[in-house]
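G.,

No rush on this.
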Amino acid sequence: MSLRVERLDRQSLAGFSCGNDELDEWLALHATPATGHGIRTYLLINAAERVVGYFSLAPHLLRRGEAPRRLTRGASGNIPAVLLAKFALDTTLHGQGLGTELLVRALETILGAAREVGGRVIVVDAIDAAARSFYERHDFQPLPGAPHRLVMKMSTAARALNIDWP
């Protein structure tokens, strides 16, 4: 299956459905305006030029007090991060392993940005228990006291993707 990722611009978002009304509505109504507020959305597009997935990224600061000790070593204040703010795959592609492919693309995008502007961790807020399980299978760790907020060190993502990291 031929899939490519490109940044949201003027593509048609019609017909996208991931099975979660909140994520579908966010893409249709809020993704474009959110670009002006620092959130970048990337679309997964198939050979028929249809949007079949997306992820949104935002700069973030993880509060030192909410992070486990292994993440705060050497940090003097809050920890610079990238928030994987939204993540969804069209229902027509569920169960084909493409969620993992979309996550890999998101992590590659995050690492590319962090290489330029910095960042120490990737943060994601799992929308439900199934999403939490998905992220945990891909080496994200829940924060103490916040089971649906998960983190991964940039270096862990780089190692998993076999990308040289600073």
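When you get to it, here's the other one too:
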Amino acid sequence: MPTLFDPIRLGAIDAPNRILMAPLTRARATADHVPTPIMAEYYAQRAGAGLIISEATGISRQGLGWPYAPGLWTGEQMRAWQPVTEAVHRAGGRIVAQLWHMGRIVHPSFLGGEKPVSASATTAPGQAHTYAGKQDYAEARPLGLDEIPPLLEDYRQATRNALEAGFDGVQIHAANGYLIDQFLRDNSNHRTDGYGGSIANRVRLLREVTEAVAGVAGADRTAVRLSPNGEVQGVNDSMPEELFTAAASALSSIGIGFLELREPREDSTFRAGDRPAIAPRIRDAFSGPLVLNSDYDGPRAGAAVERGDADAIAFGRPFIANPDLPRRLKDGLTPARDVQATWYSQGPEGYVDYPAAAS
């Protein structure tokens, strides 16, 4: 029976423990989405994770609409990531880049006034984070069929850049209401072509993106994140179990290195109603390593791995204030608390100044 602290092979990556660092947007890049030197210190501090999944990183100008988030579509961005991956590797860690296209969540102010793209002409609820403060989301335009091949090439190029920057692999962000999730779910995908309607059609973009990325990185250095939860950023589905098990089956056939699921536990306040968990069905549909994420503490994470519910657990917010989280969990230490006011600030405070626990 494996434990949280046993090694695991995630595709081509040998991880020394089953405590992964989940993607965490921290907004420490430049306004042009170029990584900064302080990011190397931050990620190296957390190299004790079995594997670090980087903060969500834009694949293109069209796909990135978060202030001070990093990108991977230009040579300058790629070269600025190199000191980050080198620092993680020097500290004995492993890191993959999470590839991000936000779809309709991108505000037009990031696009020179142009509309964002999505599966269909829909509008996200709420307001976008922009350099000018919070602004209402705008209606997206449907992504044209002729735009899908260039989109796939954007994913390929971002993958090439990630590998050249020294990342050990990539993870495709297909969760949390962003572009691929907008195609997956039926309340945001109203298309009548080969990418809409049936579940098989709505899974098509996910499959094609994954095949494109795996064609560059290798399937064993490609991962995917899904969020088989209730409504998130305005997207939802009428048959989530059928949808996400079909998605997991498609990814299993490609042979990706691992699948990460962000699904709140049954006792979480983030859980949608009394819907049963979908992760057990995905466990049956996906043959590779399965990583669960959302609201875990050490004891719950350890129990999930020992029961066989998951092969590893990804922790997000606990890594903010606990750079040495795996050691703290193993030693039963009380985790430090983070300060929300500094999650997205641009300086070192609340970023690289959380200390490791005393020996």
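The first strand starts at residue 8 and ends at 10. Confidence is low (pLDDT under 50) at residues 268-273.

Enjoy the weekend,
O.
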